[in-house]
Write a structure and sequence with these properties.
Elements lengths: L2 H4 L5 H15 L13 E6 L14 H16 L3 E3 L3 E2 L4 H10 L3 H19 L9 E2 L3 H15 L1 E4 L4 E4 L7 H4 L3 H11 L2 E11 L4 E3 L16 E10 L5 H8 L6 H11 L1 E11 L6 E5 L10 E4 L15 H11 L4 H6 L5 E9 L6 E7 L10 E4 L5 H10 L7 E2 L19 E2 L17 H14 L3 E7 L4 E2 L12 E4 L4 E3 L29 H4 E3 L6 E4 L13 H5 L11 H7 L4 E4 L7 H14 L12 E3 L3 E7 L5 E2 L4 E3 L5 E3 L5 E8 L10 H8 L1 H10 L7 E2 L6 H14 L19 H19 L3 H15 L6 H11 L4 H10 L23 E8 L2 E9 L4 H12 L10 E6 L6 E7 L4
Parallel strand pairs: 1-2, 1-24, 3-4, 12-14, 24-25, 26-31, 32-35
Antiparallel strand pairs: 5-6, 7-8, 7-9, 9-19, 10-11, 10-13, 10-18, 12-15, 13-14, 16-17, 20-21, 20-23, 22-23, 26-27, 26-30, 28-29, 29-30, 32-33, 34-35
Helix pairs in contact: 2-25, 4-5, 9-10, 19-20, 20-21, 20-23, 22-23, 22-24, 24-25
The protein binds ligand ANZ.
Length: 901
């Protein structure tokens, strides 16, 4: 049966199915490699982890936004790179394998099929020939390769950049000790290093987690996390703190994400101050951001992990201090810094305040962290809350040095610390009275005291960062193997580039092997190696890379996805440039979005890639929520357990309780997950696409209600009826000549093109849909010219590509609407300015027409001749007389006169 005979009305299912097939078969969205100098645009989605649940209707918000922009850019003449791939290593796949015994690769493969099917269902215009999968050896070969490049590098502090390890200057005293000392020295400087470090360990999952993956002492799934020491693979991201901060300035990213990164990097400007210690030649150095409070110091505190701490401990206090250090090792950083109960132990030693000469007791206290600042603080209980709590516990004196600027505001140092900025209470004491004066704003006093301390040799300016190095190892099976070998003599070496990829070995049992080791711990044949040249024995690293590794560099691979000789060619990386528009969730602010910036910076420094930042513009898509119910006790109830009573209230079926409707994340357990599949079966892909965009700005939240898709489905049906012939729907409607098209239609199209183009430039996609609605409201029952109709379909295509393509072919076009050029935005800003002109033929009034008030004679001539046709035998040799308003110069009347040559 032919399509023609079958179709009555707008059969979206058949239409969409057909175009899906044609696009796939003809590779409509295939992107060739750019020619040198060609204008390109790179628009990318944060590629997903393909989970077993598939996509729900919230996921495509971002995918659709990028798809619409990609289609618009193509029509505007850019060569567009718009690829998709899979971030397929990671914990959920491993947990599934542990539960079911199915190999993660098989489960992931099935999930990918389903994701790809859903994405094609939605009509996303990806070039599938560029698809990448991070867990496939062809991809992780290069993740390992880049890992080794970072391993073979060090950070040159003075040049503030990464350099090849071969360029690391070796101090003479190291060279003198020979090869093994040199190797050790190099290892201590690499961007990738190995150290035993306290890590977040989840006994339940048997794995180590990054700080960012721990929420209030628990994993995302709610399992408890404790701290243990493990040998670790670490990346020196903290060296790049300043560069990571500075780079943010040039990025077109949401301010909130930039601020989150700034806070995470946590730059603080302060000073290091030296305090002499009684009976010792070496001073103790503290780090402070409040130097002006120096006169208020009444004790010093050192972190328990600072090795140096023992040199202050007197014999009398040795035992107690040792016990204290042991106990605090078992507490987490979080509980140490936030717990109200500040604990400590006196060392028996005293430090001398360089400003006041005052003796202050030195404590070991675990609210001081070893890896921040110098690991020692000066205690100013009058102006710091933590110090205040500590001082109260140990009966230490509180000496205020700063007061509120307004002296009438009372403060009680007895009740709490005064932590705000203010004015100095007195001038600096004794011989140092030049350091600051009484009444001086505390911020100013900080600068003057700092200069004073530097000048007098007991202080140095210091910039500190909060960001910690990145623990780059997970005790998991389903990740990229880390290509290093730990040898029996204690040396660790990397594999040669030529020995990559190091493949994941096959295992039968995916459960952790115990002792913090993943299932890899059981792959004995794989783990144990013997160096054929020397007979030296070694073991492979059993930790794998974190699931953030593959996504650190994937935008580069899309530029040259099948390259077998390298991770991507310089030409292709250069031709496509960094990602022009990146859309994805905001939850990755300090994870993927920071890690990938770090890799790019380092690889750029090493001359391996042509640019230092991965993503020029970033947009975060908003959350999509759906309904569920809550009873009086606050228990959330699944949608299918509730019925709507006649009075509009909601009732829990089994208990008869009244419940309240709430909005919440879509989740399996609440049975409020809606899939694109079910919506598309009911309304079609185009209606789904248009509705999802129409719901609101990409960045904003949206509440899903399937029934409402009917609104955009109706719009599409109207577009269909407007576009096809009423007699035969396989044929286009009747067109008028461009000249005969009512001014209203011309004007509506000019507005549509102008508004949609500017909204697309600014990614305001919801208003694009309203513009299409407005256009239809104007033109629906009016004549339209073929050219205008074509232009409309080109504008419709990004939003409803299936319908646009179908109507385009009904128009008789042979190639895809995706190859058509975007209509030019009319430069005529005064389009709205029109006048009614009387058309006469041989002096007799025939019609009135609306024309552009600025129309020139030539234009009026052609309009008049065209419109006069019905009253003329022949148009050859006619003369046109144009009458304009004397004052304004606007046309008033046009008279077409026969034969007067
Ligand atoms: C004296 C002082 C007086 C401070 C005052 C604050 C208020 P950020 O911005 O986080 O670097 N500090 C320094 N090293 C520390 C460590 N290892 N563990 C815990 N706290 C540490 O903050 C710097 C401030 O945090 C420093 O300034 C120091 O306390 C504390 F009225 O020094 B301050």
């Amino acid at each position: 049966m032919s399509l023609k005979a079958e179709r009555t009305g707008y059969d979206f299912t058949a239409i969409e199915e057909r175009w899906r097939r044609i696009w796939r078969e003809q590779k409509t969205y295939k992107t060739p490699d750019p020619e040198p100098g060609q204008r390109t645009f790179y628009v990318l989605d944060m590629f997903p982890f393909p989970s077993g649940y598939g996509l729900h209707v919230g996921h495509p918000v971002g995918y659709l936004a990028t798809d619409i922009v990609a289609r618009y850019r193509r029509a505007s003449g850019d060569l567009v790179l718009h690829p998709m791939g899979w971030d397929s290593f990671g914990l959920p796949a491993e947990q599934h394998a542990i539960r079911t015994g199915e190999h993660p690769r098989d489960a992931i493969g099935r999930n990918i099929e389903n994701y790809r099917r859903q994405m094609e269902l939605i009509g996303l215009s990806y070039d599938w020939d560029r698809e990448i999968t991070t867990s496939e050896p062809e991809y992780y070969h290069w993740t390992q390769f880049l890992f080794l490049k970072l391993y073979d590098a060090w950070f040159d502090e003075s040049a503030q950049r990464a350099r090849s390890i071969d360029e690391l200057p070796i101090p003479d005293e190291i060279s003198d000790l020979g090869q093994s000392a040199i190797a050790k020295f190099r290892d201590s400087k690499r961007l990738v290093y190995f150290a035993s470090a306290p890590v977040n360990y989840c006994p339940e999952l048997g794995t180590v987690l990054a700080n960012e993956e721990v929420y209030d002492g628990r994993t995302e799934q709610g399992y408890e996390v404790i701290r243990i020491n493990l040998p670790q693979v670490i990346m020196r991201i903290s060296s790049f703190a300043e560069r990571l901060l500075a780079g943010l300035e040039g990025l077109d990213w949401p301010e909130g994400i930039k601020e989150t990164q700034r806070n995470w990097i946590g730059r603080s400007e302060g000073v290091e101050l030296d305090f002499d210690v009684e009976g010792h030649d070496r001073p103790i150095t503290v780090y402070t951001t409040r130097a002006e409070t120096l006169a208020g110091v009444t004790f010093l505190a050192v972190a328990p992990e600072v090795k140096d701490v023992n040199r202050f401990v007197t014999d009398e206090h040795r035992e107690k201090v040792a016990a204290y250090i042991g106990a605090s090792a078992r507490r987490s950083d979080l509980s140490r810094t936030t717990s109200r109960e500040k604990t400590g132990e006196f060392t028996g030693s005293y430090a001398i305040n360089p400003l006041t000469g005052r003796r202050s007791p030195i404590f070991v206290a675990d609210y001081v962290l070893a890896d921040h600042g110098t690991g020692a603080v000066m205690g100013v209980p009058a102006h710091d809350e933590r110090d205040w709590e500590f001082a109260h516990l140990y009966g230490i004196e509180v000496i205020p040095v700063v007061r509120p600027t307004d002296p009438t505001i009372p403060v009680s140092i007895k009740a709490a610390a005064f932590v705000d900025a203010g004015a100095m209470i007195a001038e600096a004491p004794g011989p140092h009275n030049k350091a600051y004066r009484e009444g001086q704003p505390s911020g100013e006093a900080r600068s003057s005291l700092t200069s004073y301390a530097i000048h007098n040799g007991f202080g140095r300016r210091s910039v500190r960062y909060n960001i910690r190095d990145w623990i780059f190892a997970r005790q998991r099976y389903w990740g990229e193997p880390i290509p290093v070998i730990h040898w029996e003599d204690g040396e660790t070496t990397a594999l040669n580039y030529g020995d990559l990829p190091l493949l994941l070995p096959h295992v039968e049992d995916f459960k952790p092997a115990g002792g913090g080791k993943s299932a890899l711990g059981r792959a004995v044949d794989w783990i144990n190696v013997v160096d054929p040249a020397t007979g030296r024995r070694g073991v492979r690293e059993t930790a794998t890379m974190p699931n953030w590794a593959g996504s650190c560099w994937y935008p580069l691979r899309f530029t040259d996805p099948h390259n077998e000789k390298g991770f991507a060619s310089w030409e292709m990386m250069q031709a496509w440039g960094p990602v022009d528009l990146y859309i994805g969730g905001a939850e990755h602010a300090t994870l993927h979005l920071l890690y990938s910036r770090f890799w790019y910076l380092a690889l750029y420094d090493l001359g391996l890639i042509p640019y230092a930042e991965p993503f020029k513009k970033l947009v975060n898509q908003g959350m999509l929520v759906s309904f569920a119910y809550k009873n009086a006790r606050g228990v959330v109830i699944a949608v299918d357990e509730v019925i709507e009573a006649e009075d509009g209230r909601f009732v829990h079926q089994s208990s008869g309780e009244l419940v309240e409707r709430i909005t919440t994340k879509m989740s399996k357990s609440l049975r409020n997950v809606v899939t694109p599949d079910e919506v598309i079966a009911r309304f079609g892909s185009d209606a789904f696409r248009m509705f999802l965009m129409f719901m609101g700005p990409v960045e904003g939240p949206r509440v899903w209600e399937t029934d409402k898709v009917a609104s955009t489905a109706r719009l599409l049906k109207r577009i269909w009826s407007f576009s096809v012939s009423a007699e035969d729907e396989t044929q286009p409607r009747e067109w008028c000549a461009r000249e005969e098209q009512p001014r209203k239609v011309t004007r509506a199209l000019v507005t549509l093109v102008k508004e949609v183009s500017s909204d697309l430039e600014n990614i305001r996609l919801n208003t694009c849909v309203s513009e299409i609605m407005k256009f239809m409201n104007v033109v629906e029952h009016l004549p339209i010219s073929k050219e205008a109709h074509r232009e409309f379909l080109v504008v419709l295509n990004p939003f409803a590509p299936f319908l646009a393509e179908e109507l385009w072919s009904i128009l008789g076009e042979k190639s895809s609407v995706n190859k058509a050029a975007w209509p030019a935005v009319s430069a005529n800003a005064e389009m709205d300015d029109t006048v009614n002109v009387v058309l006469q033929v041989s002096g007799r009034k025939r019609v009135e027409v609306e024309v552009d008030a600025n129309a020139d004679d030539e234009r009026l001539h052609s309009i008049a001749v065209a419109l006069a046709k019905p009253w003329l035998e022949a148009t050859a040799g006619v003369k046109v007389i144009i009458v304009r308003d004397k004052a304004t110069g606007r046309p008033k009347l046009v008279n077409v006169v026969r034969g007067a040559a």
